[in-house]
TrEMBL record:
It comes from Methanothrix harundinacea (strain 6Ac). Keywords: Membrane, Transferase, Transmembrane, Transmembrane helix. Coiled coil: none annotated. This is Glycosyl transferase, family 2. Gene3D superfamilies: Spore Coat Polysaccharide Biosynthesis Protein SpsA, Chain A. GO terms for molecular function: glycosyltransferase activity. The chain crosses the membrane at residues 228-249, 261-283. The keyword Membrane applies. InterPro entries: GCTrfase_AglJ, Glyco_trans_2-like, Glycosyltransferase_2, Nucleotide-diphossugar_trans. Residues 7-160 form the Glycosyltransferase 2-like domain.
Amino acid sequence: MTQNDVCILIPTLNEEDAIAGVIGEFKRMGFDDLLVIDGHSQDRTRERAEEAGARVVVQRGRGKGQALKEAFSLIEAEQIVMIDGDGTYLPGEVGHLLEPVLAGKADHVMGNRFGNLEPGALTRLNSAGNRLINFFFRLIYDVPLSDILTGYRAFTREGVRRLDLTMEGFEIETEMTVDSVKKGLAIAEVPITYRPRATGTKTKLNPLMDGARIVATIYRMAKTHNPLFYFGLMGSFFGTAGFILGLYVLREWITTRTEHIPLTILTALLIIVGFQLFFMGILGDAVASMHREALREIYRNRKER
Ligand SMILES: Nc1nc2c(ncn2[C@@H]2O[C@H](COP(=O)(O)OP(=O)(O)O)[C@@H](O)[C@H]2O)c(=O)[nH]1
Ligand SMILES: [Mg+2]
């Protein structure tokens, strides 16, 4: 393996207990290009990272997403590995992640934490949330990935270059995964170990708030990838509301001959809007598949040149 062409990218925010250990293990394996992108830690994270031999950059803004985007623009290595600085992933498994990238089989390799999830690594809430989110992702994007929120990934530089990342916070992993699918990057998933955080250290992720943001991101990004789902879901809300209201209006008229004129108008409107959204989905679907074909063609041409 050519450790010299690999940059190990580590986002940190208050990880003074774990960061030196993570960096040390990579150093022992011969990796020399380590970049810690720090989110204005208020403990000794930056000092520990520098002592351990990493290059440390303080991110300009806030959030893990902003940090990773900024870091990607600084990296020139051919392969990039990202790993959390909290010691929950094993540096020793980096070979599993790099293997598909080095073999030219993937531009984006994702470490699947459910491969070897150690007891207590995910709280019950986080585990249920992760599984739900992965299920929702597979439903919309129809790609068999088991752990879209993983924090251990390997990329080719070309893979990173092709991604358009906009998210500032913990939605960044979702965006990386979804955009890779949209752009047609070769994605591979390999099983990895996930350990509990060291006792006393705290996650910065708020399961409910960040979970809701992640689900919203998955849904919002479906607008251009699976418009039939995106508009269809909205359309079926309107349609169902109209149908239920219509049943009520009809029953009133049949049983007591009462006419609810405004409600009747509302029923009609809801049903019409529902159908319109649904047709928007069908149109969007056609546009999306044409766009996908065009993109594929453009990319093929560029590669051949
Ligand atoms: N640079 C930077 N790193 C962050 C930020 N928030 C979290 N991190 C780091 O990102 C990694 C994952 O965060 P963590 O809180 O462990 O989330 P979890 O693994 O999803 O529970 C850890 O290494 C954190 O230190 C941030 O705002 N900026
Ligand atoms: Mg963590």
